[in-house]
Description:
Blueprint: H1 14-22, E1 32-36, H2 42-63, E2 68-72, H3 75-84, E3 91-95, H4 96-104, H5 108-131, H6 138-156, H7 179-192, H8 194-203, E4 206-209, H9 217-229, E5 235-240, H10 254-257, E6 266-267, E7 269-270, H11 275-289, E8 294-295, E9 303-310, H12 314-329, E10 341-344, H13 347-354, H14 357-364, H15 370-375, H16 382-396, H17 400-410, H18 423-439, H19 447-456, H20 464-471, H21 481-491, H22 495-505, E11 511-513, E12 522-529, H23 531-534, H24 541-544, H25 552-559, H26 565-577, E13 580-590, H27 593-603, E14 611-613
Helix pairs in contact: 1-2, 4-7, 5-6, 7-9, 11-26, 13-14, 14-21, 16-17, 18-19, 20-21
Amino acid sequence: MEDVRVVTDDNRDSNADSIIQSCFDLKNPKSFFLFAGAGSGKTRSLVSALEYINAKMGRELKLNGRNVAVITYTNAARDEIKRRSRYNPLFEISTIHSFAWNLICAHTCDIREWLKREISVKKAEAETKLATSRKTTKTYKETEKKLAKLTQRLEYLDSVKHFIYNPDGLNVENNSLDHSEVIKITAEFLSQKETLQKILVDKYPILLIDESQDTKKDLMNVFLQIQEKYATRFSVGLLGDIMQRIYLDGKDDLHKSIPTTWETPTKIMNHRSRKRIVDLCNSIRKPVDGIEQKSREDKPGGFVRVFVSFRDNPYDTEQAILHQMSQITGDTKWEQIKNVKALTLEHKMAASRLGFKNFYESLHNVSSYRQGLMDGSLSVVGVLTHILLPLHQADLNNNPFEKAKIVKENALIFKEKDFVLTNELLQELQASVDSLSACWSGRDPSCCELLRIVYEKNIFSLSKDIEQMLENPPSEGDEDFQKIFNLSAALNSPFSEVERYWEYINGQASFDTHQGVKGLEFERVMVIIDDNAARSNIFSYDKLFGLQPRSDTDIKNESEGKDSSLDRTRRLLYVTCSRAMDSLAIVYYTDDVDIVYSTLLNNNWFTQEEIIRI
Length: 614
């Protein structure tokens, strides 16, 4: 009979799961923070916890109409945990925005009053700014426009019967809330309204939060406060790794805020990566907290290479590196980029490599578009990404039912209340949609060509900016000229650029950002480093490797115990390198190959054989 006490790689961290499960007791609940590095099996521990809860108290919770809340960071993580928990209705698994909205959506009057206060404050700030700005400046004109929008929204609030919000949608309706508002409102309501606190605790006696180090700081603070207040009735479980905190709105001192009464299990195994990659990640992490992971005995070896190159012809350089990695590893799949996950620091770097540069950069030139463009929520192009693209896909898949569904959900004539639909109108709509489909027949139309059909035939709703571009574009010198000029430049791109952009934003392309792959794993990873192309002062690989001196701000932040660009970059490098299962290529673009080569060699993270000059 096998001795169960024998420690193997599979059960070395089982004590952590036992500690977590000991916290789940409705009569004597405890809270915990699972501290575990990359590839340690945090999701596996989360699923095991859900299985234990279901077996021990699932029936009691269901009989009393109670649930276990699980907050994940991405839709993909949510879907994976739902699948692995067999879609058990006991578990309400959602992203933070969905969870927050479900808590507050019924509080229409309170939301209205909150918005009135918030908008009034912003309105007063705008009025003060106008009073101190010269009327001829760009700032004055932008503030004047902002003030008009705030005034219009404030006047509209009293007529709102209910507010709407879609965590994955565009949220452009007059009665919709945006993503940041939902988080702010939820944090404030939970902090101030005891009734809502009790609803949370009674409905969800157990709250589990994955990737807790990147959960919005305001909400994390209030969850911790509620747990302390209702400690005998409410259990909070946090799963995460401080070394993988890469977003600036997370709680940077989370590990210092955990009460001493909480359990703090740890995991030391890395089940994902081969030994060489685990060793590299340990070296990157060591100066931060000294924590080292153990690699699995059945995952020896692994490949790490750093290619140092001038910035000329990055496409040719990266193709050559793919070929070299294939020879070094003996893995022929390295020959094609489609088999590799390539990570860039900025979306612009991916846009030029994936073929949507004109569409992306033209929109990125408009400051008010930037955030939505980067996270896929930009409403001005929503008709392209959320309607025309799926419509085109339905055509390609020869799926008339899906096509009809898209049209019914989005066509303007179906959105008009008390509107009589005649056969003639429906036939006109069908002809209009057919004319759109005809544009894609054997060609790649421009976005403008498609949008003009939508506009002229009044098929779907368009943003005011697109309508202005098509109806009456401003003249040079007008306040909106530059914005509409860039929008027009973007929409003159072929529609295929929108397809590539949307594949990339949704993680379906061979390229992704350093930040966008947290929680994921790939057999082959290429990390592309180029501080010049990134044009960011938030991260600096040259500073991390000692090629540039720390700035005065870095030194000041470090002396005060605050985050510096070196801290952020180290964490980001740890996240990217730890995505690799078998082999890792780091491409370092520079103006001085020899200096970078010698600096990396002296760094002692890589052997001489592993650093290759291109």
